## 1
Amino acid sequence: MLNEKVHALMNEQIAKELYSAYIYLDFANYFEEKGLDGFANWYMIQAQEERDHALLFYQYLHNNNARVDLLPIDKPDKALTSDIAVLRAGLEHEELVTGLINDIYHAAADVRDYRSMQFLDWFIAEQGEEEKNASDLITKYELYAGDSKGLYMLNSELAARVYTAPSLTLS
Ligand code: FEO
């Protein structure tokens, strides 16, 4: 049986991951309106990945006979004042999510819940990747997007991103 605190944190994480999907949809919306379809594509795929993360927690709870209680999802609240502000808000958000995942891991470790720790290992690695992707995007923007040709090239690169299902699957 899942520890009460681990259960509550994982249940909350479903809404947090869906909130992540919602803010990335907001970012995609921002770039779509600006005509930067590659950036919009990149964040739309990011939103899909966040939905996948939410569903993994959902499935893990069900697989462990732990009740899922779907909580409200906050309205996207990032100030989208410029392209670089959006990119930076993405990195800041991923750092926050890393903290949330670490908190769940900590709670699982406290009660020697090795099964949950093993499940969470995937998210620990994923957060490393997510932070790196967000940080690389800022670096590329700062290096190359200073003129319209550079911005066009970067937008084209981001347009090529394709969705792939998570490497972790639960059934
Ligand atoms: Fe689900 Fe981007 O962390």
## 2
Amino acid sequence: MIKDEVYILAIESSCDETAAAVVKNGREVLSNVISSQIALHTQYGGVVPELASRKHIEKINQVIEAALSEAGMALDQMTAIAVTYGPGLVGALLVGVAEAKALAYGAGLPLVGVHHIEGHISANFLEHPDLEPPLLCLVVSGGHTHLVIMKDYGEFEIIGRTRDDAAGEAFDKVARAIGLGYPGGPKIDMAAREGNPHAMEFPRAKIEGSPYDFSFSGLKSAVLNFLNHEKMAGNEVSRADLAASFQNAVVDVLVCHTIFAAKEHGIRKIAIAGGVASNTALRAAMAAACEKEGIQLYRPSPIFCTDNAAMIGAAAYYEYKKGVRSGWDLNAVPNLKLGER
Ligand code: KG4
Ligand code: ZN
């Protein structure tokens, strides 16, 4: 082991995945273990916070042991322990935070608390060794839809955000309404492959005076109204067409706003992040638009788009290098703002 090498054991438990990873120098994933709770929450049609916390407690030690063993390393070979401390479900976050504090204290290692969204953005560094800020990132997850200029490591300016539902939330709600169930994003993505994205033309919301902001609640209502109307008229509705048309409307808005923001700010590097960034149609449409504009696009592999701990290890590395250390009083902050400590 070379002295300057930084090995971070990262822990993520902000929602419904219990995850741990070992990341070398912020860029190299030595292990990435994820225990998904999808099967548990499916029967309730969405994440039940109390059940999520309990499952995290049950799994966290196993997941950490697996991450160290897959990396072929021991805890005392780590340089630091990193953990997501917000935003997220408070009970879920607390499991990771308490575990990270106990491990770091016991092993005499520094502790670095990480912002979950900073983690999502940093997922882009894991597979693109050449990528450096500044860049524009579209963050689309279950709880967030942000257009963020990453000026430098740890320095963010949010230039656009959703006024209502997050993109992932819209996927989840529409999936439930059209009977596709949970988790909605991947189900719509799959169903849409068999459908016609132009079968129905759903609205693309524009917010007067805020060209980088988003709104998805009108789109969701339009889908529901359409469905009810067709049902009342006794018409059969193709679920695949509905999924494809809804997805097309979301993707259209996400791509248009992102490209417009990049052009207006003279940024030539776009990255995408968060669970919705694993969406097949979004990845393809963003790639086509970037190619047309001569903009470089960065996309994490789908496994690094949805919640994972490797992304937390990537973000933690740059915080660690800057000298950021969390105290033993580190607490879960469910509504932590990006760029805040
Ligand atoms: O980033 P993430 O794993 O957790 C949060 O931080 O929220 O994102 C989860 C969200 C869910 O709303 C899920 O439906 C959505 O990402 N998602 C997708 C896809 N995979 C996950 N949305 C659209 N297409 C997908 N393939
Ligand atoms: Zn997330």
## 3
Amino acid sequence: MNPAARNAVANAARAAGASVGLAGETIIINGGRPLTGRIEVKGAKNLVTKAMVAAILGDGPSVLRDVPAISDVRVVRGLLEVHGVTVTDGDEPGELILDPRGVVSAHMVDIDAHAGSSRIPILFCGPLLHKLGEAFIPDLGGCRIGDRPIDYHLEVLKNFGAVIEKLPSGIRMTAPEGLVGTKISLPYPSVGATEQVLLTAVLAQGKTELSGAAIEPEIMDLINILQKMGAIISVDTDRLIRIEGVTSLSGYTHRALFDRNEAASWAAAALATDGDIFVGGARQPEMLTFLNVFRKVGGAFEIHDDGIRFYHPGGELKPVVIETDVHPGFMTDWQQPLVVALAKAHGVSIVHETVYEQRFGFTEALVKMGATIQLHSDCLGAHPCRFGQRNFQHSAIISGPSHLTGADVEVPDLRGGFSHLIAALSATGTSRVSNVGIISRGYENFIEKLRALGADFEIDA
Ligand code: EPZ
């Protein structure tokens, strides 16, 4: 391991250790109190981590602002450092300076030491193949919300000319002839696979045409960043993205798009606890679909220049039928926190999860607290879905109103974990929520935010 890598491994382990402080931690929540007050959301986890990888493509340093202090960012920072990219804190809070000029290959063991449960390493391939002609990817993690395959990613990279070699501990990739622009059609508008194409096509020789692309706001913000670096990218109608490869890219300066998933999570918390939360930094355009559903359930909101106020206006919550979908549909990451409010709605709600096959594991804890939720393998909705005949429990029927009472629950994954927090906060009585460290993967300073909103809890020493 080269000295830079050894140093980076130590730093990242220390940094991760800081976040691991909560990893196995339990918090004891006395529920039944409305959450009220103001919190701020920073840059989107699902943009910032990719923007950090994009910095590798530049010939000079990049500046990224509004970076949240979450462990997913610490993981990517460690991965960049083991690859010789220097990452330093800028002048303003949440500002990172990323200098790729010392980029080097890293060994699988070093990558593995950081990758942890992140899926981001697969996005290093295109940039590293352009810069170094080779890339190593350990077997990847990610929240257990389904199989999380990377077949689309590997197909994309092969399409560009990458040679993929399966190793016992992961994958080695080379690009002996360089990477050449190509025509790609995704079988599903995968966010990650679209990012894979973007991060590879921008420096490939010639043109790339991507059909069936994801067009999430985080994808569009990554395109903003790449265009700032010198890339030529057009987004046509009907999910068609065209990229003209260029010979070099500069660094970028960018303030990340806000985290709409965190904003939606706190909005759901306001609804479920009869509360009133101002989410600073939240913007209406990227939350349009969520706001419609929030209003239909009986929530109220006010759009301000510096954020959105989400509150329970009184009265009964109403049941809804939701089908998650790719953008601009109802985002899959929004359903878990909202299901808690649906458990309190007067009537029967249905959630048809069409993006991931196993994303209702978190409902077990809600049932333990008194919710009435049945899972079905049928597609309970009009949306065509890949999981219908494959026996995945990907539809939920939520009957309310249920009275939630405190219970001991364990956080299963990031968004499910946040719904456990909301359930404990809205239940009467005391809950012990364990393994809460996972939540710090995607929610910056959530303990301080809970305190600011008046939650009654303590950390179980
Ligand atoms: C991103 O995951 C987000 N994660 C997810 O957020 C988000 O839920 C998801 O996009 C959908 O919006 C990050 O950006 C780090 P996909 P990603 O590729 O890119 C299948 C959170 O909590 N698929 O759009 O992994 C896949 O199994 C996380 O912040 C393949 O089959 O999502 C899934 O069914 C959770 N083969 C569907 O596509 C592949 O090679 C959508 O996945 C890739 C994906």
